[in-house]
Each structure stands twice: as structure tokens, then as C-alpha cells.
Amino acid sequence: MNVSVVLFTADLRVHDHPPLCAALDGSRHVVPLFVRDPAVDGAGFAAPNRLAFLADCLHDLDAALRRRGGRLVVRSGDPVEQVCEVAREADADEVHVAADVSRFAHRREERLRRALEADGRRLHVHDTVTTAVAPGTLTPSSSDHFAVFTPYFRQWSRQRLRAPLGAPRTVRVPDGVASGELPSRPAAADLSPALAPGGETEGRRRLAAWVRSGVTAYEERHDDLAGDATSRLSPHLHFGTLSPVELVHRARGAAVPGAEAFVRQVAWRDFHRQVLAARPAAASADYRTKHDRWRSERSAREDVEAWRQGRTGYPIVDAAMRQLLYEGWMHNRGRLLTASFLTKTLYVDWRVGARHFLRYLVDGDLANNQLNWQWMAGTGTDTRPNRVLNPVTQAKRYDPDGTYVRRWVPELSGLDGPAVHEPWKLQGAARAALDYPDPVVELSEGLARFKHARDRG
Ligand code: FAD
Fold first, then answer.
1. Which superfamily does 3-127 belong to?
2. Distance 385 CA to ligand 1 centre (A)
3. For residue 196, what are the contacts with CB-CB under 8 A and spacing of at least 6?
4. φ and ψ at 5, to 5 degrees?
5. Ligand 1 within 6 A of 359 CB?
6. How far is Cα 87 from Cα 6, in angstroms, rounded to an integer?
7. Domain-by-domain residue ranges, the chain?
8. What topology does CATH give the domain 131-161+200-278?
9. What is the pLDDT of residues 137-158, one digit of tens each?
10. Rounded to two decimals, what is the model's pTM?
11. CA of 363 to the centre of ligand 1 (A)
């Protein structure tokens, strides 16, 4: 066979890339293709932070292919039309692509298969490119997917993962296939000021540093808000600049104490993907409804705005929300407690929060974001759906001396130790001198509202 096309989607790397390796094994020439799809922008997923990270990833991928004698072909438009056009121009027999889980990805795959077959070409869809274990591989006896993490993880841990593949040495691209410009980053003014850079080179640098020195203390330190001791690999997993299969092998290979606790978190990612693959509607509808009558964005406008801006009067919530705006990323403990605050204390619809997170998160990911929001809202896979995280208790446990709050809420930087978590306890002039809002809601009032709504439901 002479020519194959490899369609890159959420797998923007050359290491451990089964579609690229399969194409190179079977063909003399390969067209590495990325299609910028305007429908993704139209659906609200083109957040500036992620567009900047994506631009970094595409430039880095193009450079990696050029070092191997090839290049990245970039097109813009409907991916099915564009792939078919490139396949015709290059006279390709086959197209290779990674499997993905959203309804959007499934439809794209089906349309692409039909369109290519009509042209006499074949589509190959590769598993375990964007997940370590493919959705649908593990199922309980009574369903097409696991709805609870623990039994899923038990089976997941026993799976033998395929061996990671090396990066190809040479990529030969046929002449005469036109390419558009690589996209550039959006204007800096539209981005979070401390946004992390993207690209496979950066992802592999982070991975090496993490395996060398970070993962050891993961189990004890992953919830320490100020310590910032998690891997920060989430955007690299989202854009596929790192392979989850390789990540699990490398973490286990380090054979250090924190490795299994870390691998368990990576399994959560696969877990959510197998839920979304089986129930694509869970991206926007309750996975397990409690018949909540949430406050809408409109009816809770002031509370929602205070939450978005980090002005709720609860320092730990505000610190985490400001980290999101400034970095385009938030610590997992911050995500949990801000999501609990919005859905359980302010009793606002989880979709309002999920939308705001997707607007800023550089790792913003349909499966992980929507299903984690649902987990915290009690409409997802949590086996204790009425769990409420008290922001003061959480603050004292996960930011015991207040360092994280003072880092992100400078108005409170003059308050020492854990006193920073309860500024409303200050008296007289000390309180009046603070330029910091009173709490938007009493915790007891929020809890009463949640209980009332829950009992009514
Ligand atoms: P580490 O602690 O180093 O974990 C390693 C990897 O494991 C992560 O990169 C991630 O891929 C995976 N992981 C860790 N925790 C989870 C989890 N709870 N669920 C699924 N996978 C996990 N993660 C996203 O990647 N994208 C999102 O849009 C997203 N939205 C979230 C929204 C809410 C409300 C909550 C509570 C969590 C969300 N998460 C999301 C999960 C988690 O917070 C992030 O993956 C994690 O904080 C990323 O930081 P890290 O790479 O340092 O994680």
C-alpha cells in the first residue's frame, strides 16, 4: 500500500501513537492531518486558554514530524469532508484515527467511515490511544458499563496494558498535499496570565520530572492545596501530548510509594470515559436524577457572579476560583469544594458551574468535567449523593495554616495562620479595614435550602 492518512484529534504526539505506527507499518507515505473544525467553536468548546495550548501542541507536533522528514498538514472545515479531500489528493487507501468517547466523536467516526467507504477507502479506529483501557472492555454482568468506581478499578488494575510504542524515526509525506497555516495563540489579553505552555516536548519534560521526583509523595500530599504536589499533567492527557498507557507504565516502573495512588487517579479518567461512551447524554443531562429543582443562573445571578469572581466571602472558595481565572487550572481539592459550594450550598444547577469551568480550564474535558460536576452535585456516580463539603472544615484540613488562601486572596494576606479562613470573626476596626465581602450565604441557611430541596425531591 502506498499512502495512508493519520487524522490527529486528541492525541497530539509522536510517542506511543498506535494510529501513526500502524499507518507507517502499512504504507510508504503517510499524511499526518489535523482538521480545525468550526463546529467545535460553535458548540462553545473553543475557550481561549485551550486554543492557546492547542496552538502550542500543533507547532510542537509539526516540529517533531519535520525532524523525522515529514510535516503536519492542517485543514479547516468539516472533518469528514476535509479527510476525504486529503485522501483523494494523496490517493490514500486508508485513514487511521484514535477512538474517542463523546457523541460528537462517535458521529464523526460513523460519517467518516461511510464517506470513505463510498470512495473505496477504509477507516481504522484505534483503541487505547486516548485511554489506558478502552471503554467497553470492562463491564459488570448486569450493564454495558460500570456505574461505580471501586469495582471498575478492581478490574482495571488487573488489565494487562499493551507495551508503549516508540516514536517513529522517519515519516515520509507525499508531495502535493496542500496545508493551511498552523493556528496561532489567541491574544494574551484573552488568556489566563499564568497559563501553562502546551506541546509534547513540554509534556514529556513534565512527565520525566514527575516520575523522577514528584510521584513518590503523591499519596500523602495530593490534597495539600498550598503544596501544589500533583502532577499537573491533566492538559497533556486532555490533548493527548502524553499517552495514558505510557503514563501508567512509567509511574508503575518508578516503583515508588505514591505510584499506585497516582495510577488510581488516572483510572478515574478511564472510568469517566467509559461512562460517557455508554451514556453520551450525561454530558448535559443528569446521569441519575434526584429531580432537583436547581436555582438557575438567572434566579441566582448575584451568587453565581460572586462565585465566578472569587468574591463569595468564603476565603477557600474564593482562593480556588481565583486560581482558575489566573492559571486556567485549579487544584482537584479546590474543584471539589467550589463545586460543592455552588451546587449544595448555593443550590445552583451543576451545568452553570460546569460551563464556567469549561470556559477557563486548560484541561477542560467533556467526560472529566461534566461527570465530576455530576459526582459532586449528587446526580452522578457518587454512592453518597447527599455529601456536602463544608468550606471552613475543608479549609482547615487542606490548607491548615492558610498559605493557599493568602496566595490567592491578597486582601486577606495580613491575617495570620488559620484565622484567614474565618474573616467574619474579626471584630470592629480590624473587620472594617478588610476590603473583603461578607459571606454570600450562611452555611446553615445553605444547608437548610439543600435539605429542603432534597426532601421535596
Ligand atoms: P493528578 O492528581 O496528578 O492526577 C493525574 C491524572 O489523573 C490527572 O491529570 C487526570 O487526568 C486524572 N484525574 C485525577 N483526578 C481525577 C478525577 N477526579 N476524575 C478524573 N480524572 C482524574 N479533570 C480534567 O482532566 N478535566 C476537567 O475538565 C476536570 N474537571 C473537573 C471538575 C470538577 C468539579 C472536579 C471535582 C474535578 C475535575 N477534574 C477534571 C478532575 C481533576 O480535578 C483533575 O484531573 C486534576 O485536578 C488535574 O490535576 P493533575 O493533573 O495535577 O492531577
1. HUPs (3.40.50.620)
2. 19
3. 53, 202, 232, 235, 327, 328, 329, 362
4. -105, 135
5. no
6. 10
7. 3-127, 131-161+200-278, 301-456
8. 1.25.40
9. 999 999 999 999 999 999 999 9
10. 0.97
11. 8
